[in-house]
Design a protein that fits this description.
Layout (H helix, E strand, L loop, with lengths): L2 H10 L8 E4 L3 E5 L3 E6 L12 H15 L7 E9 L6 E3 L5 E10 L7 H6 L5 H17 L9 H9 L5 H8 L1 H30 L3 E3 L9 E2 L5 E2 L7 H4 E3 H14 L3 H14 L6 H27 L5 H21 L2
Antiparallel strand pairs: 1-2, 2-3, 3-6, 4-5, 4-6, 7-10, 8-9
Helix pairs in contact: 4-10, 5-7, 6-7, 7-11, 7-12, 9-10, 9-11, 11-12
InterPro entries: Cell-binding_unc_protein (IPR052732), Kinase-like_dom_sf (IPR011009)
C-alpha cells in the first residue's frame, strides 16, 4: 500500500473507521479509532527488516499477533485483510469481497492518557510504577524461551556499527565533529566487546539470553492498573533474542533521555532484587555498553523518521529528537 491508499481506506470506511486518526512511523501506518487500532506495515526494506512483499507483510502480521500475546491479554485481536473491490476499486477492511492488497493487525485501543511517555512528560510516573514494571519484566524473562544459540561478538558489533549509515545525515545537520562522535562510538564498541566477551559468554551459559521484547521503551508501555507492554519486535528474531540486561538497558536509557535518571536507577534496582542480573563489575560495564547501544538505536531510528519528512515544523520536531539521542550517546560515551 501507499499513503494515498491508506487515506482512501479511511475515507471509504466511515462506519468502521469513524474519524480515524492516522499516525505514521518509519515502518507502519497506524489507524486509531475510538475502540480499536489497525496497524498496517509499510512496503519497506531496511537492513534490519523486510516488508517488501505482501507475503512477508502477512507473515509478520501473524508473528506480531503471536509474539505480543505473550505480554498482553485481550489487546492483540486479529489479523484482517485489506481488500480492493474488483469493479469500483473501493478499499475495505475485512470481509471477503475483492482482492487482498494488504493486511492489518487489529488491536484494542487503550487509554492514551496512560501511555508511559506521555505520563513522563506530565511527571506522573512514580517509583511504584518501576516496581510494577520490574515485577512484570522479571516474570516474563524468567518464563520466556531461553536462547541456546551462542552470542556472536562480531554480530553484536555489526549491530552497533549499523548506525554509521546515518553519519552523513548527522554531518549535514550538525557538522563533522558530530559525525565523528559516531565513529568514536564504533571504535569504543570494538574495545568494550573484546574486553567483555568472556563475561558475555558466561552470562549466556547462565541463562540470561532470552526471546524477549526487543523494543522496550516508554512509548511501548501503558501504565494501567497492571502495566501493558506491547509492540515487541516481530520482524527480526535476532534483535529480539538478547541478554535481559540489554533489554532492561533500553528502558533505562529512555528514562535517562527524558531526564528521569532516578526512575532509571530505581528500575534496575527493583529488577535486580527480583532477578539478579548484575552480579559484578563486568556486568555493570556491560549494562553501560548496552545503554550506549540503545541510545545508538534510538538515534538511528529517529534519523530514519526524519529522512521521510519534508521541510517544515514536523521535521524540526523530529530533528530535536535526533539531537536528544545524539547528545545522550555522547554523554554515555564520555562517562
Amino acid at each position: 500500500m501507499k499513503h494515498a491508499d491508506v487515506q482512501a481506506l479511511i475515507q471509504g470506511n466511515p462506519r468502521l473507521l469513524p474519524e480515524a486518526q492516522l499516525v505514521e512511523t518509519h515502518i507502519s501506518w497506524v489507524l486509531l479509532t475510538d475502540k480499536n487500532v489497525y496497524k498496517i506495515k509499510k512496503p519497506v526494506d531496511y537492513t534490519f527488516l523486510n516488508f517488501s512483499t505482501l507475503e512477508k507483510r502477512k507473515f509478520y502480521c501473524d508473528r506480531e499477533l503471536f509474539l505480543n500475546r505473550r505480554l498482553t491479554d485481550g489487546v492483540y485481536l486479529d489479523v484482517v485483510p485489506i481488500l480492493r473491490e474488483d469493479y469500483t476499486g473501493v478499499l475495505s477492511l475485512g470481509g471477503e469481497e475483492g482482492t487482498v492488497i494488504d493486511y492489518a493487525v487489529k488491536m484494542k485501543r487503550l487509554d492514551s492518557d496512560r501511555q508511559m511517555d506521555l505520563m513522563l512528560e506530565n511527571d506522573l510516573v512514580t517509583m511504584a510504577h518501576m516496581e510494577q514494571l520490574a515485577e512484570q519484566l522479571t516474570d516474563f524473562h524468567m518464563s520466556t524461551e531461553v536462547v541456546t544459540a551462542h552470542p556472536n561478538i562480531h554480530s553484536m558489533h555489526q549491530d552497533f556499527a549499523d548506525f554509521l549509515r546515518v553519519a552523513p545525515f548527522i554531518e549535514k545537520h550538525w557538522g563533522a565533529d558530530a559525525a565523528l562522535l559516531l565513529h568514536k562510538g564504533e571504535e569504543h564498541s570494538k574495545q568494550v566487546l573484546k574486553s567483555l566477551q568472556d563475561r558475555i559468554y558466561e552470562r549466556h551459559l547462565e541463562g540470561f539470553t532470552v526471546d524477549g521484547h526487543g523494543d522496550l521503551h516508554a512509548k511501548n508501555i501503558f501504565l494501567l492498573e497492571k502495566p501493558v507492554i506491547f509492540d515487541c519486535i516481530e520482524f527480526n528474531d535476532h534483535l529480539r533474542k538478547l541478554d535481559v540486561l540489554n533489554e532492561l538497558a533500553f528502558l533505562c536509557m529512555d528514562l535517562d533521555a527524558k531526564g528521569q535518571t532516578d526512575l532509571s536507577d530505581g528500575l534496575l534496582e527493583a529488577y535486580n532484587q527480583r532477578y539478579i542480573c548484575v552480579n559484578n563489575g563486568p556486568d555493570e560495564k556491560l549494562f553501560e555498553y548496552y545503554k550506549l547501544y540503545r541510545a545508538n538505536v534510538r538515534l538511528k531510528i529517529n534519523v530514519f523518521k526524519a529522512m521521510q519528512l519534508s521541510e517544515g515544523p514536523e521535521l524540526d520536531r523530529q530533528l530535536v529528537m535526533v539531537r536528544t539521542f545524539l547528545d545522550l550517546f555522547g554523554s554515555y560515551l564520555n562517562e
